[in-house]
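Appendix C: a fully annotated inverse folding record. The material below is reproduced so that readers can follow the format used throughout the book. The structure is listed first as tokens, followed by the designed sequence.
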């Protein structure tokens, strides 16, 4: 079986094209008789087309965040009180799942760092206190 979009060969049980990612429609017979030469010609035709990114139209997929968005959120997290409040707002109420997950990861990392600092200083002060007496 061959992909209707790019002409790549697909295993009989494949649901998506391994080359272009298009969902495989069940053959109703119109493409079942395609020769290998025709499929290769279709593949060559798609290679000659420009290599533009395919626009994803799946409504369940979150838009991709740019590098500047990640950098902005990272810098926002470094502001002591306002940054934490904004991260909590984005972690709870953002429409973009990528932004929500990134803000949750930053908040979790900050909580872990605070716990490590508290454990370190409490053990350090405990040892220091036992040495003084």
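Designed amino acids, in order:
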């Amino acid at each position: 079986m061959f992909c209707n979009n790019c002409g790549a060969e697909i295993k009989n049980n494949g649901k998506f094209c391994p080359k272009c990612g298009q969902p495989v429609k069940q053959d109703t017979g119109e493409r079942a008789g395609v020769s290998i030469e025709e499929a290769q010609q279709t593949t060559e035709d798609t290679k000659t087309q420009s290599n533009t990114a395919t626009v994803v139209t799946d409504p369940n997929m979150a838009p991709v965040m740019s590098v500047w968005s990640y950098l902005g959120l990272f810098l926002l997290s470094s502001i002591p009180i306002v940054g934490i409040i904004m991260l909590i707002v984005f972690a709870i109420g953002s429409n973009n799942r990528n932004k929500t997950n990134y803000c949750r990861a930053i908040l979790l990392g900050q909580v872990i760092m605070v716990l490590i600092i508290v454990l370190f200083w409490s053990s350090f002060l405990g040892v220091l206190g036992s040495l003084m007496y």
